[in-house]
Write a structure and sequence with these properties.
Elements: H1 7-32, H2 44-58, H3 63-71, H4 94-104, H5 109-128, H6 130-135, H7 138-146, H8 153-161, H9 165-177, H10 189-199
Helix pairs in contact: 1-10, 2-3, 2-9, 3-5, 3-10, 4-5, 5-9
The structure holds fe (iii) ion.
Length: 203
């Protein structure tokens, strides 16, 4: 019961929590990463890894953006009940579920908000960019309807006020690109390192 170093217990607790959080993420990908990315020619893990790689290429120093890219569909892997599943097109409100789970595991608010916003970003882009809509995969066009369809002008204005607006759009465009079949996932060690750096406060 010593009080002479009050930092020590909380620091070791944080490290413990970091380890648990990373193990939780990796276990979920291990168990369910092979699942099909809803009607697309890639698995969940391939899609997550490709999105992270694209984010890393564009913003090599932005750990939060890269991790948001890696984890943006994490909520799809958290849904369990059949009624959560939109007829084989994934977990309903997976963006909200994912964001909640990531906050719980200690990820930053920016990451949680980017994850939470990636469906709205799709609705926004579809509503404002005809070329974007034309480039959507068939599966993504089908889920669009289940996700609320087009945004009204008012919804668009609200979304434009989001402080992460540009980031939401960037992440969404990478999301659409990250569906290349036959591309090796590679070692995920670098993402594990980024998660550790992010979750452990600088000491
Ligand atoms: Fe995605």
């Amino acid at each position: 019961m010593t009080l002479n170093n009050p930092q020590l217990p909380s620091k070791s607790m944080t490290h413990h929590h970091t380890h648990e959080a990373i193990q939780t993420i990796l276990a979920v990908f291990r168990e369910r990463g092979h699942e099909e990315y809803h009607g697309e020619p890639v698995s969940q893990l391939e899609h997550a890894a490709q999105t992270a790689q694209l984010a890393q290429r564009g913003h090599p120093d932005d750990t939060e953006f890269i991790l948001a890219a890696f984890l943006h569909d994490f909520g799809h892997l958290c849904g369990t009940t059949p009624e959560d599943n939109m007829g084989g097109y994934g977990t309903r409100q997976h963006e909200t579920i994912g964001a909640r789970e990531l906050r719980r595991l200690g990820f930053s608010e920016k990451i949680a908000r980017l994850v939470e916003g990636h469906v709205q970003a799709k609705r926004y882009l579809v509503s404002t960019d005809a070329a974007y809509y034309a480039g959507l995969s068939e599966a993504s066009k089908i889920t669009l309807e289940k996700q609320g369809g087009l945004m009204s002008a008012e919804e668009q204005r609200d979304f434009e006020q989001d402080t992460l607006f540009e980031w939401h759009l960037q992440l969404r465009r990478l999301d659409e690109q990250a569906k290349v079949s036959g591309q090796p996932v590679g070692d995920l060690g670098w993402l594990e390192v980024l998660m550790r750096e992010h979750l452990e406060p600088a000491v």
